[in-house]
Amino acid sequence: MLYAVLCYDAESEVNAWSKELDAKVMADLGAVNQRYAEAGKLGPVARLMPTTAAVTVRKGVTDDIVMDGPFAETKEQFLGFFVLDVETLEEAITFARELSAVNPANGTYEVRPLQYFNPGVPIT
Amino acid sequence: MTELAWIDLALTSARPQAMGALLRYFRDLDMAEEAYQEACLRALKTWPDKGPPRDPAAWLIFVGRNSGIDQVRKRARHQPLPPEEVLSDLEDTERDLADRLDGAHYRDDILRLLFVCCHKDLPATQQIALALRIVSGLSVRQIARAFLVSEAAMEQRITRAKAKVGAAGIPFETPDAVARAERLGLVAAMIYLVFNEGYSAGVPDKADTPFCAEAIRLARLLLKLFPAEPEIMGLTALLLLQHSRLAARFDKDGQIVLLEDQDRSLWDRSLIDEALVLIDKAIRHRAPGAFQIQAAIAALHARAKTADETDWLEIDLLYQTLERLQPSPVVRLNRAVAVSKREGPEAALALIEPLADKLNGYFYFHGLRGGLLKQLGRYGEAHEAFDRAIALATSSAEAAHIRQHLDSMQRERTAAEK
């Protein structure tokens, strides 16, 4: 079985970390990752940029609406994610619009840049 | 992380929100601060045993408000009660408080807290000191050290600033859209001042003070409150880009390293990436502003892999746009650097000579002018300009940098005479 492990925390506190503390936390997490990667069990790992860097693509009546900021509704749940390598935010938004167009549900796509990405090892 | 370190972080990040709400309740900076301090003391006592509250800011506001009310009641025995409207807000139930915590109240609370620090009668240094003390919660000692004054002097400065703010009256009505936009503009300018106080000091020890990091934290906070404001995106991006070069701006002897000579591998890519995204976001709004343009200029430097790859044409055009938006001799001076790269020192010199009257007391004017004259081989005039720059330098690193110019000019002249 594949599992996704999602990290939640108070962003304002994490952003108040000193550079040294941030580096130490990343190194400590990296050490745990390393053990699982060596056992062939760890796929991609990503750290997201602050929510201030996010935009959200929402279904509109005629066209999708692009809004500044992160996804903030609590009545919907986090269902999945995609990792995309493109040059500009505009391209990423286009991708989200295409997903939205073929997705019959009324869901929302948040576009959040990654701060850190490790592709991990191939897992099955 | 130790327990104490964790609590300290939680208190730091909850501070603007909690102080903003307490200021709304008590309508007085000192009273809000006292109440906040008391709440922090209780947090240090109870959080280690009971564990962290789910919402530290809400906890601090609730406890701070109650302790503040106690204080008011104690004082009331000795002096007449404050006017009714000061107290009328204090009887809210806890549930009401919880409602308020989700609401847009917070946004205006924090904006107000920042806004009172940029009162127009306060000189820039006092605005900076007040914001760092009240909003960021830096100690008077930390602020005093960065301003190179004694703790007592800084304490006095902050007390005076607070008195001025109090006397002017703190605006408590909820601002309309126009007033809010105006406040936002002033607050953004104040945050930029805080950053520059740390950044432009030109000494590595001072660049290490928490000023720059604090300014970035405040800018991010503001952006979180106003996620669709392109100028706040621009401000945040600009600060991130400037800060990304911190490690490359001074050599091991503490000497200034110019942008074109910096080791670009020392630039903080993660800050740059975040800034580039924010600029992309801002551009979508098609509402250019001064911070966005300055960020775009900084981004062109950040995108160039080497100094030679810098897109000076685009930078020149952006400076021209900035000049139209916000005409200023300093902007023209900056544009002259781009012009010197594209068209040579003569064109740049022609551009800045008319600024001599306005910028006569400005270090960078004489520094740049000296550099251009030196490139043109007009050594005598260059020497005079450099001497003037040294006299105007505000730090030893600035003066040392100009002396390097003088030394290299001396070598050029000697070589030419041989």
UniProtKB/TrEMBL annotation, chain A:
A Pfam family assignment: YCII
Domain YCII-related stretches: 1-117
PANTHER family the UniProt entry points to: BLL7171 PROTEIN, BLL7171 PROTEIN-RELATED
Family: Belongs to the YciI family.
Name of the protein this chain belongs to: YCII-related domain-containing protein
Source organism per UniProt: Shinella granuli
Automatic annotation (TrEMBL), chain B:
RNA polymerase sigma factor 70 region 4 type domain: residues covered: 115-164
UniProt cross-references to InterPro entries, sorted A to Z: DUF6596, RNA_pol_sigma-70_dom, RNA_pol_sigma70_r2, RNA_pol_sigma70_r4_t2, RNA_pol_sigma_r2, RNA_pol_sigma_r3/r4-like, TPR-like_helical_dom_sf, WH-like_DNA-bd_sf
Record-level GO BP terms: DNA-templated transcription initiation
Residue intervals of the RNA polymerase sigma-70 region domain: 15-77
Domain DUF6596, residue spans: 183-282
Pfam families: DUF6596, Sigma70_r2, Sigma70_r4_2
Top-level division of the source organism's lineage: Bacteria
GO terms assigned for molecular function: DNA binding; sigma factor activity
Name under which the protein is recorded: RNA polymerase sigma-70 factor (ECF subfamily)
